[in-house]
Please model this.
Amino acid sequence: MKSKPQKCRMNNPVVLSQVESLFAWTMLLSKQKRSNQMRNWCETKRLTLMPWKRAASAAAVVVVFTVVIPVYAQVTTKYPPLSEYLMPQSSEIASARSAAPPNVSSQATIKVLTKSGYEVVHKGENGFVCMVMRGWAAPTYTPATVRALVYDAKVRAPICFDPVAARIVMPYYELRSKLGMEGKNPDQITDAIQAAYVKGELPRRDTVSFAYMWSADQQLGPGVDHWHPHMMIFAPYYNNSMLGGNDPGGVLPQVLDDAGTPFTVVLIPVDHSLAVKIQPQ
Model:
């Protein structure tokens, strides 16, 4: 008989099982570690309902959109008109497809941003979902100084989620986008995301998944622009020391935003020659 997974008292099951990665670096978290993470999570939620600030701050590094942190310390704290975040549909479809190699994106589901949120405009066959994220995809916790990226209407970040990430990660980014479109500030977005995850309204992050960000035409923010094509690895509770403490902004695997939380992102740059140019539709 299988044993039932642990559950937080706040009805938020968080069970870390297998951690599997794209480039054959596969490891299993021990039962003890999973148990400790569960106890820490439940205790934090029960006592404070506060973010994972300590763990995240200790391992905070530069998020993919924000290699240059000081830029966003000066950014405005007022949202531009929603129209500035929107794109012509044909342009957005072409941009979304540039997130991954053609053999992936040509068979993927495509979503575009509308005034009411992201909507499917093409149903794919391979389980991948491609879309263009905006500044609302900024980190929820750390680096804290770049959470104001939500106010930057010029960010265009094509991404193509693998089937697992499309199921358990994409809803997180879509909720962040919805909250931003409602005019919520970074603190309000953090509170809402945290509450949704604790209540089970967002899928549990119980495994590693990935996404392509290979567009040659991505705009990731002032001072960053196109940067490198790269893989996004969604690795719950990782911190940079687990990858060897590689320098942020370099070409080695590195933890980006929200280290030590369910929403941790690992970035693995790939060669510039793999960047995909936008093809007119």
In short: The chain has one domain: 32-274.
